[in-house]
Amino acid sequence: MNLRKDSGALKWTLIIIGELFLALFLILPLVFIVRTSLEKGLAVYFKSITDQYAVKAAFLTIKATIWAVVVNTIFGVCAAWCITKFAFHGKKILSTFIDLPVTVSPIIAGLIYVLTFGRQSFLFPLLDRWDIEIIFATPGIILATIFVTFPFISRELIPVLTAQGTDEEEAAALMGAKTWTIFRTVTLPHIKWALLYGVVLCTARAMGEFGAVSVLSGHLRGKTNTLPLYIELLYQGYDFTGAFAASSLLVVLTIIILILRVWLEGRGNKDADIRK
Amino acid sequence: MKQKKTKSVIPGFGLSFGVTLTILSIVVLIPLCSLVVFSARLSPSEFLHTITTTRVLKSYWISISTAFVASAINAAMGLILAWILVRYEFPGKRFVDGLIELPFALPTAVAGIALTHMTTTQGWVGKIFYDLFRIKIAYTPLGIVVALIFIGIPFVVRSVQPVLEKIDIQYEEAASLLGATRRETFWKIIFPEILPALISGFSLAFARCIGEYGSVVFISGNIPYETEIAPLMIMSKLQEYDYASATSIALVMLAIAFVILSVNAILQSMVSKRVSGIA
Asked: What distance in Å separates residue B46's CA from the closest CA in chain A?
């Protein structure tokens, strides 16, 4: 006897409610984007996505995303390594600060950087003398992107490394292995799936960041417009086909990311099961 | 006194800690300090004046009320989705499970323009609602709720799902052997068990929705006193280079987010005490 069995009617009602909800809120918008972008035919669609400003915006988005992934990977690995392998005071505060960026509104994230590097900041005279432009320029966009994805990689690595413990690294160290060797041969095999998973999440969020980047961008066409900002510009200029064509590129990337995510999650779980 | 750092045989503490602290300082700590320094220089009367103007107060109210309604709807739908994903087998289950994460991966601006264009009185969905019920969705608070429902979908599902998976079948067996109906078993055995996760999913969604900008800014239409959200108020102050007002509004928003997360933490400890008290 299966005590968890609900009556067929209840079961299917709940399933249909759930699926209708997702179809209405998630699938319909995606279909709508693709449909609207192709409204005026394929020729217009290809013209929109190969527009020189669209291409430049796409390159800036890729640049910011790569920066965010690289910096957050270095940070995530180092932070996870020192949080899980060593005992020191202030660990809790460190974790709080690492998680902080995702809890603040993206607009506030942008505001914080404007206050730090803008004209009224105590750092401004210094930046001015060395001729460094941060806000309303590419470095600001990159910083904002790093900020909004800051904990994504460390947060995936910490649970895996905590579960793994420190025995293996200690054994390797006692046998005389150097830091880099220990990391590469002992730690990395444990965390590789979690690391890739974190990179995928980081990429997803970095390529789509809008609020924080919007505050820090100078909104210069072809210079400081990322793809999401370019979409906003087109939409507000009533170029709906162009806006949805550019959006469809991001929809394709989103779908790839979702598929990768499911696959990586499966791989990670399988590895964890084998080790048990 | 706590004893000082225990010596570890594993090398690389200095290097990893140094890199961690350097990047953390540049990305988070220094900017945070400058926010504190700038806030300290605000005059209290100016601060109070900025945050109590009718337009700003109204924007807080719009942000909080729409975020609350959207998160409440997501709590109910999230519970149903988590339930069907854990308890039932049905065709396309894996697809549904993967789809839940879509709002997280889809750029908010893309979601924003799609939802807006669909729900204007000429759009696919908006036309139906307008013709049948004379209800407008885009450029009204209802539109903001729609965008926030989209954004908040993953939060409740992903916090309830793992808890629901871990509930031991023995409790349900015992309840059923003692003569409880399925309904009683759900409300008295299962629901108290998943309540903390439900509350925390709701709080996370609520906090996220209050700060949401990208998906809302298109669909809201940004009509002062009617559909202007608090993050947009900050944005428009920034565009006027009025950093003092922008910071004042932002500080109140940070306080609101802090209150939501603290209430959640308090509720978590209360609920978990009650549950463990029974067991």
From this structure: 18
